[in-house]
Write the structure tokens for this entry.
Amino acid sequence: MKENISIEVSNLSKHYGKFKAVDEITFDVKKGEIFGFLGANGAGKSTAMKMLCGLLGPTSGEGTVAGFDIYKQSEQIKKNIGYMSQKFSLYNDLTVLENMIFYGGIYGLSRKYIKEKTTTLLKELGFDDKLGTMVSSLPLGWKQKISFTLAHIHNPAIVFLDEPTGGVDPVTRRDFWEMIYKAAEGGTTVFVTTHYMDEAEYCDRISMMVDGQIHGLGSPAELKKQFESTNMDEVFIKLARPNEKV
Amino acid sequence: MKRFNAFVLKEFYHIMRDWQTLLILIGMPVAQILLFGFAISNEIREVSISFVDQDNSRYSREIRQKIDASNYFKEGVEIYDTQEVESYFRKGEIKMAIVVPEGFAEQLVNEGNGQLQVIIDASDPNTASLLSNYIQAIVQSYLDEFNRGAKPPFFIEVRSELVYNPELKGAYLFVPGTISVIMMLISAMMTSISITREKELGTMEVLLATPMSPVQVVLAKVVPYLLLAFFNAVVVLLMGYFIFDVPVNGSVPLLLAEMLLFIVTSLALGIFISSITSSQQVALMISLMGLMLPTILLSGFIFPVENMPLPLQVISNIVPAKWFLLIIKGIMIKGQGIAFFWKETLILLGFTLFFVVLSIKKFKIRLS
Amino acid sequence: MKVLFFILEKEFRQIFRNKAMLPIIFVIPVVQLMILSFAVDYEIKNLKLTVVDADRGVYSRKLTEKFTASGYFHLLEYTSDNEEAANLMHGWKTDVILVIPNGFDKDLMNDEVPLVQLRMDAVDGTKAGMAAGYSQAIIRDFIFELVGEEMISMNKQPEFLYKGEVIPINYYNPYMNYKVYMVPGILAILVTMVGAFLSSMNIVREKELGTIEQINVTPIARYQFILGKTIPFWVIGLFEFSIGLVVARLVFDIHVEGSLFVLYFFTSIYLFLILGFGLLISTVTATQQQAMFISWFFLVIFLLMGGLFTPVENMPDWAQKFTYVNPVRFFIEVLRGIMLKGAGFTDLLNQFMLISGYAILLIWFAVRRYKKVDN
């Protein structure tokens, strides 16, 4: 395995009958990188991510995550990753701290450590007074931030974020990306799917998915150059609708 | 009206799409009726017994033969000592031991009165008394063969007539009973769940934001269940008629009208339940635990209400199925007309009104 | 092991935080045990009797008295109008009509055989059958009494009659109290219902809410997850069972004849069986509604075929074979055996094998069916 590679995928596919949700994708992600996975709704982003997290079995192709094989070592992978799903993943009927203790506990962390870590992380967000608050009474933006905190409470090598900023306001989205940067600075690899093209600019590298295939891969600057566009929106439209004139 | 129809259609799509639930809703009453008709029985048959013959006379041996020849009993383990009986009871291997004591024949011949003992596992007292009655009857009919020719000084001939159900068919009870349970459960449970589901998922607010009035929204939700419950009831009715010969002696239109009324009562109850809860889980548990058992047990479906202690008889009055059962049995089996159950009909109407008013009140409180 | 502890903590918190469900879990079953046990009774008392007495003689009155003194009947109407009696029966007012013909007294005294009619409302066949049995026994007694009186007054020996007397010795339930029999059965049903419904809705609820995905990306082991979902309901089930035993003791005066240890041993294993059943349903369904309906369907069939109201032995052979896959049947047998008959472990070996066999099978299936990776 190459020293600085965190995710490596070649010819990975997922078929549902004749429908190819993910069609022979190949890419790699370096350690500490923020890797954006972009595409329209239904392009296969979530499916690809679920295969990497061990939630979904691939049809064919190969891949390693954190050095572990996605077929045979999915439980090893799970020890080394954090995941924030598109659906809301906290328990509404538990408090913030109780949610943290539950998930942290599954990763084998001690109660004391979880409490300290959660307090520190939430203090940074200016949110430490809400430890005992029931999740159901929090606004959506805060729930998302807490879900993210929860996804890397156990210091995983990689965090997978599946459309983490869906439905929140622009200010919260900026806050959220600051959290992502901070995590990446700490050496965590961040793998994020989104369909907000402005967010693509925040990523180190991005891959553009169209109908299950990767049609573009590189840094935002490279992609803009390659597709002769001034912003990512244009890149996206050129890729998704190649026959339309911009 | 067009808008209303569209809403009803939407509900239908929901129901049809979830075919597992639909299958259960339609299969349930059919399975129940078949089980009641072919599997479940109050009649004892081939009960395992032991015969302890301490007399070993002509009489005791012949009694044993008579008992063995009946369909009710079959001999299980051989027992010589009555002390052993209990250990077989505990294992559940036999239900009864018949003991003919030494000197039975002598007593019979000299005094005309022979005593035998039956040791019975009476943990089920109902079966226990049936068993001892059957043995009594077999023994007496055997002894009556010797009595032939002897003429008692007095005699009364008894002619028994079983009115309405000469063959004592169980179906006369379980067909109307199943109809009422099924209608109550489908109507009350399904409406309460489907309304709370929309509340839980937040789609109720969307519906209420449309130009439909809240009453229309709720009505549109219940219409499909009304039809489904009605369909089910008719299926059971037809099965009763064709498979178990349960007649409809009274007026069929009247029967259908009363069935409709009971469905409406149940729907109103379902709407009421959904107006006091907001989670599916609670609605389901209330419907199942709070409706199913009382509807089966307190309505007179299996156990006659008159046998219950007074407080329960009072409670049974608030079980709508109790009143409906009186109506439906009256029409189907006795061929009664409305004159016999106008009171029950009014009570069902009263229940309906009560639930509707309460739900509207609850609803208004939430809106304001 | 530590991981399991964290899961349990979370499950218990969620259960006890749900204020609407708590009374449903803990109060309703107990109330039902009390109410339903009183409701369930086959013994027929208070049959409503109408006597159509066309004779109005000494003996016809005596016969009527004999009926009312038996305790089974209470006299609703004493009339000579047949029509009226028939109308009463048509409107559910009377259960039994006894028709005593004109000339009853005279016939009886003159060695003639008077004909008495009994008309039973037979819509409820069981009730009618019992009413007929009681009535015939009463009339028989009436004749024997007359014979006795006659023997004394005329000082003559009537012709010899053979009479067999069956003396029942009733074990386990000497007062023939039906509640004693029903309470353990209803307790079995309630434990089954609570266990099956709660567990079947549990995993599926996490599916519906989406939280299951978050759990599936963790390194949690399948057995840890299933155990974490089972143990809380197992504890609740045992607790509920204990309350039921207390109610049985205090309200119905039912003492456990056998060993409490054996009783709890069986209940513990049975609860795993039922929870495994619920979890299996929960892994094959997508919504709480479906889970609820499927468990409801099975429970109703289990209940009807479990020997609660009607003995399994009465069923035809094919149906009896079918009950071998009905765990409720065996649990009812176990509870009744231990509580009423004092059955010990060796007496219930068959039930033990079946219950633990099914428990292992169902849990194994549930663990197999619960997949962290979706193919």
About this structure: Chain C touches chain A through 26 residues (CB under 8 Å).
